[in-house]
Amino acid sequence: MKRWVVAAVALAGLTGCAVPVSGQAVSGPTASSSAAAADPEVLRWVNNFCGVAKYMIASGGVTFDQNQTDPAAMRKSISDSLGRVVDVLNVVLHDLDELTPAPAPAADTAVEIINEPLTRARDKFVSAKSTVDTAPEMTTDVMSTVIQDMTEAVTVMNEAVEKMGVVSLPDDFRAAAEQAENCDA
Fold first, then answer.
1. How many CA atoms lie within 13 A of 121 on its CB side?
2. Measured between alpha carbons, how far is 87 from 42 in angstroms, rounded to an integer?
3. Residues 159, 152: Cα–Cα separation, whole Å
4. Are 184 and 28 in contact (CB under 8 A)?
5. How many other C-beta atoms lie within 10 A of the C-beta of residue 165?
6. In a 3-state reduction of DSSP, which class is residue 7?
7. Hey, what long-range contacts does 93-101 have (CB within 8 A, 24 or more apart)?
8. pLDDT in tens, 36-87
9. What are the counts of helices (DSSP H) followed by strands (DSSP E) for the chain?
């Protein structure tokens, strides 16, 4: 099975935050070492599943200028950064949805297990961006609300990472990971 880790999103202070999404896709143990060709539909699914992980990892960190002194520029920087995080999560969630129905019900379950916390994280980032965009000015209270939403988003992203570690795919899916282009370590 393909296991991948997405590092937790980090917060850095009240006036500046960083939201890195990093990690490396790695192959897990396989059920057999035979070089038998995987079922084409299973191989396609596994390749796309790993592709979602690769996209999220490749999207890297999103940061904004922590030394910004101009309130309007700070608002734009924070809003733009939160917008990029939301965009990345929207693509990831869309691509996960495209994986269903899977060739086996257990694979659908794996997608559902990962999809739910990522959806909640995305929604919290959307809330943080909305708070920034609609606030008349960037006060300490506004930033506290934004950071609270981001902290909750980080918490549920960590939940997603934990769930990724326990997701179990059928043996033929794990074996297909060895042949899937997007599942290289």
1. 27
2. 28
3. 11
4. no
5. 9
6. coil
7. 93/118, 93/119, 93/122, 95/48, 95/51, 95/52, 95/55, 96/52, 98/48, 99/45, 99/48, 99/49, 99/52
8. 788 999 999 999 998 888 887 777 655 666 777 888 888 898 999 999 999 9
9. 5, 4
* Model pTM score: 0.74
Q: What tokens appear for 6 in the block?
A: 């997405």
Q: What is the pLDDT of residues 133-154, one digit of tens each?
A: 999 988 999 999 999 999 999 8
What tokens does 101 get? 């129905």
The residue to which tokens 């790695």 are assigned: 26
Give the residue ranges of DSSP H helices in 11-70: 40-58
Helices 71-98, 105-134: axis angle to 10 degrees equals: 160
- Tell whether the model's pLDDT for residue 18 goes beyond 60: no
Q: Of all helices (H) and strands (E), which one includes residue 18?
A: strand 18-19
**Is 70 exceeded by the pLDDT of residue 33?**
no
Tell me how far apart the alpha carbons of residues 88 and 145 are, in angstroms, rounded to a whole number. Answer: 22
